[in-house]
Write a structure and sequence with these properties.
Layout (H helix, E strand, L loop, with lengths): L10 E4 L5 E7 L6 H19 L2 H7 L7 E7 L10 E4 L7 E9 L3
Parallel strand pairs: 2-3, 3-5
Antiparallel strand pairs: 1-2, 4-5
Amino acid sequence: MPLTSIDSVDAALKTNDGWIELVITDVGEVHDPGRRMSTLDAKLKTYVRYVESEEFQKDFGTADITKVIVKVVYSGPEYKFPVSEMTVKARDREPICIPIVFEKLPF
């Protein structure tokens, strides 16, 4: 799914060391920097809703949500003001901060 598919989760997987990686793919289809950031923000809100959802529970069972990370994999220009975390309140718990990392594709 591209970045502009703001209502969907691009990829969600469990790593061998028990982390859950939620991936956002940005292949450079949004060229305006302001629109790109607002699109990323909308996509991140979808990811917050996913982590808070029953669907996440169904996909990952009783996974430790403190071991969730969002990875933004992108091509094109660097993000000028990248966010570094998002706050999630899931399953009647205290809010937690989920780290967001940015990984530039080599092409």
